[in-house]
Amino acid sequence: MADLIEMDAPVLTEAPVITIDGPSGTGKGAISHLLAESLHWHILDSGALYRLVGVGAHKNGILLNDINALKKFTIEMEVYFSRLYEGSLELNGEDISTQIRQESSGDLASQVAVIPEVREALYERQLAFRQMPGLVADGRDMGTVVFPDAVQKFFLTASLEVRAQRRYKQLINKGLSVNLRDLLQDIETRDERDSLRAISPLVPANDALVIDTTDLDINQVFKKVLIAIQQALNLGI
Ligand code: C5P
Questions:
Q1: What does the domain layout of the chain look like in residue ranges?
Q2: Ligand 1 first shell, C-beta below 6 A
């Protein structure tokens, strides 16, 4: 009898992970944040890591075709997150919180993100965020590559126009100067680069729940996410 009970009981050897992937402006950052707060789980903003590499390389005059220097920088960079989500961020002792959120940093991030050596170097760092009681991982390849064994995977989408509008509001609220038409163009270029790259492209995992957020506000999306998680995990949130 005791043996049977042991066989039936799932043994949780690693912290559970929920992944939230999708292009920018779909609300995945905000949803990840709300979810991590509700569950009291850790959060990984993987886009911030790619932004740090892009901005750091730029600041240090490392050319994007100097793969060895980029790889070394990615492995050695010292990162300090003051808060888990959108708090201040330090790179090698310098506060780059404002700069990191600019659209130009997103562009630099997506340029370094096509380089296999950079992705490989960031892979280990991302795995280290997986700690008890659990992790909400936000990115592009969280469910497909980094945490394929996630207990629940989401992929958020929305029309290009709506995503650009949302990003516009976010950046303006942060006091950053931005032009809507340029932003739309930047997002389109970034989407294309992220979706067409050979390694870890932006695609939904086969087992991801795809949510189109075009006509939904953040609370409506969060409700859908919670329902799916409750059904999948019986978490009683
Ligand atoms: O999510 P965020 O806009 O901060 O991501 C910036 C860029 O980093 C993305 O456009 C993408 O190129 C890259 N990225 C990635 N894989 C992730 C997260 C971000 O390639 N998991």
A1: 17-215
A2: 24, 46-47, 50-51, 106, 109-110, 113, 139-142, 190, 194
CA-based nearest residue to 162, from 218, 106, 210, 209 = 218
Taking the C-alpha atoms of residue 29 and residue 211, their distance in angstroms, rounded to an integer, is 14
**Which atom of ligand 1 lies nearest, measured to the CA of 111?**
12
- Based on its alpha-carbon atoms, the radius of gyration of the chain, rounded to whole angstroms, reads 18
pLDDT tens-digit map of 39-54: 999 999 999 999 999 9
Q: Which helix (H) or strand (E) holds 80?
A: strand 79-81
Q: How far is the CA of 29 from the centre of ligand 1 (A)?
A: 11
Give the residue-averaged pLDDT of 97-116: 91
CATH number assigned to the domain with residue range 17-215, chosen from the 4 options 3.40.50.300, 3.40.50.720, 3.40.47.10, 3.40.980.10: 3.40.50.300
pLDDT tens-digit map of 206-230:
999 999 999 999 999 999 999 999 8
| Closest residue to atom 1 of ligand 1, CA basis | 47
* 102 CA from centroid of ligand 1 (Å): 13
Look at residue 2 and tell me whether its pLDDT is greater than 50: no
